[in-house]
Amino acid sequence: MAVSAIASAAALGSAYGLSVDLRHRASQPSHQQATPEDWFERSTPRSPALVAQGRKAFLNSCAHCHGVDASGDEGPDLHELEGSDRYISRTILHGVKGEMPSFAKKLGSDDIVKLTAYLRSLK
Amino acid sequence: MDKDLWAKMHGATVHFPIALVLFSFTLDGAGYAFSKLAMRRGLHSAGYWSMLLGAAGTVPAVVSGLVMTKGVLLGHDTLRVHHLFAWPTFALIVGIAIWRALGRGSTNERPSLGYVVAVGIAAVLVSATGYWGGEMVVGR
Question: Which residue of A lies nearest to B72 if distances are taken between CA atoms?
Answer without folding.
Answer: A19
